Prior knowledge:
Helices cover 49% and strands 3% of the residues. The protein is built from ten helices and two strands; from the N terminus they run βααβαααααααα. Strands 1-2 form a two-stranded antiparallel sheet. Helix 1 (49-59) packs antiparallel against helix 2 (69-87) and helix 3 (104-122) runs antiparallel to helix 4. The longest helix is centred in the middle third of the chain and has 34 residues, at 130-163. The N and C termini lie far apart (101 Å).
Amino acid sequence: MRSGKITSSNVSSHVPVSMITNIAVPLLEKFSNQNKKTVQRLKWNEIDEQLYRDTISEKLSDIREDKTTSENIKTLTSILLKASHLAVPSKITKLKGPKWKASPKVRKHLKTCKQLYSKWKALGKPENHQSKQDLKSEKKKLRSQQRQEQATDRRKLYEQIMDNPSSELFFKLINRNKSKSKTETSGLEIDEIGTVHPVWESASQSLLDVRKSMIKARMLTGTYLVQADKYKFSQYKINATCLLCQREDEDLTHVLTFCPALRKLV
């Protein structure tokens, strides 16, 4: 037998082609707040009832029998929306942009910081330049103003709780402290010795009311003992899980808002 070597060759024609194309590669879009909307909640407890009735009565003539049911429903909906817009005050619950509400002073510092940063960036961001020092100084003023306003808001809340205690203010205080690891609250104090706290003034002489007031006072002062506190005090030997529902750690927020076992008792 004679062995042969088989070789293959590419005999197709290859023609070099040179071309120039214009390709537009879209850049990543920067995060923008333009598509966000400000969410507001209507405060129905402060409604102007007379204005609400007058607005609806004035527009009810737009609902006619010659229109379809669907058209009349749309008309009625627009009438109610317009009346609520005019007669019911609203409260902003979600802002367009930052989640915190910036005061005019804070906005002024923010604007100055942006201008100084743009100036520093245009110079190539030099480390040892006066523009960077100015930016650093303005940021310090911004943070200082924010801390002052936060402290003022806390003080106002404490004064409201002390002067006019209510469940709404109490839960507002709890929600404010949700992100904090400590359950203590500073600022709930009485200046004059012998002055009775509103928690005790609102309680009757019955044993049940006295016990309720004791629990409220301990919660307000951060001395109410829960499983999470026992867990820390026992050097992590006692389980921090809620003994009633066995679902999650028992802290003050869990007791007041999340525990399903306690919710059934309300």
